[in-house]
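WARN retry 2 of 3 for item q-0093 after timeout on previous attempt; input resubmitted unchanged.
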Amino acid sequence: MEAHPLEELELRLGYSFSNRALLLRALTHKSLLVELPPDPEAGLWPRDNEQLEFLGDSILGFLASDHLVRRCPTFPEGKLSKLKAHLVSAVQLHEVAKRLGLGTYLRLGKGEETNGGRQKKALLANSVEAIIAAIYLDGGLAACDAFLAQHVWSVIPEGEPEETPVPIDSKSALQELAQAQKLPVPRYSIVHMSGPEHERMFTVEARIGRDFAARAEGPSKKVASQRAARELLDHLRAEVSARV
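OK item q-0093 returned
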């Protein structure tokens, strides 16, 4: 007998729900609501996952801070902040969603399905936050921390905390390289936006003077800016190396 899809997902998550309705809600995008019949027993929680995303974001931030302070007790605040920003970023959560195969289990409306919702980075990242909240409501903070230890905290290498590398901030690295090469300060501008308001994609251009520019897309201005900076950083490093 084949496993129920939610049982398959629970195996991937490493957590079994006592109240599986919470998991269903975490997987339900608001685009599906217009296609569902009224449910007078839905209770105070809406049937889509937006409020769970909101709650999950806060839980993730708190547990990330708690984990890093315990794991890296000698780190200054600045380094802890950079590590936390990496752990809770949309880019990192999208990677978690991909590893879990989460897109397969999402409950989408027909329009969102047609528009490739199962592969949308922002939608997948938000769904991970919703699942974090669902686990919290079902099993508490300890269950959340166990899930995060398995799927999120593991991106920080094991070993002495002092040796833990801080993920590269591409914008800062680009600015430092530009200064070292006596080039203008990098500038960032949004050159294009697409998609509905709740699923916006941004294209940002990173530019140094007239000669160096790169563009990249992301689910937020911040993510797109970092990606564009990384592209331009690689290009500028190649230019510098060619001169040597």
